[in-house]
Amino acid sequence: MNEENIKKLKKIPASEFWESREGFQRWLSNNLDVLEEPLGEKLKLKDKDRHLEGNFIDIIAKPAKQEKRGSFLILCKLKRLNKNHLDQIQTLQEKRAKPSRIILLATEFSQNL
Description:
Layout: H1 14-17, H2 21-30, H3 36-39, E1 43-52, E2 55-63, E3 71-81, H4 83-95, E4 100-109
Parallel strand pairs: 3-4
Antiparallel strand pairs: 1-2, 2-3
């Protein structure tokens, strides 16, 4: 191995890598496996870019195992997540008849959450 080829990893803001929420959403919908370890569950893409009960959902996924029920509603934000976002999510969860888990992915969270 040539040690000259070894590089140092550098942390960069997500918004510098993905220019838009749509770009991040597209990447994540093709790479749902990155959520397997933190969630402890394998996911399958069900839908994306969907309006659901008055709210915009970036990705809807379902558990890969058929016997598991419910869905994952995934919202991608390349900006600060604020109280309005949480209020929208709470309203959506209250209206849903089927059980679901909501995943919020954001680059920053407001201090007052």
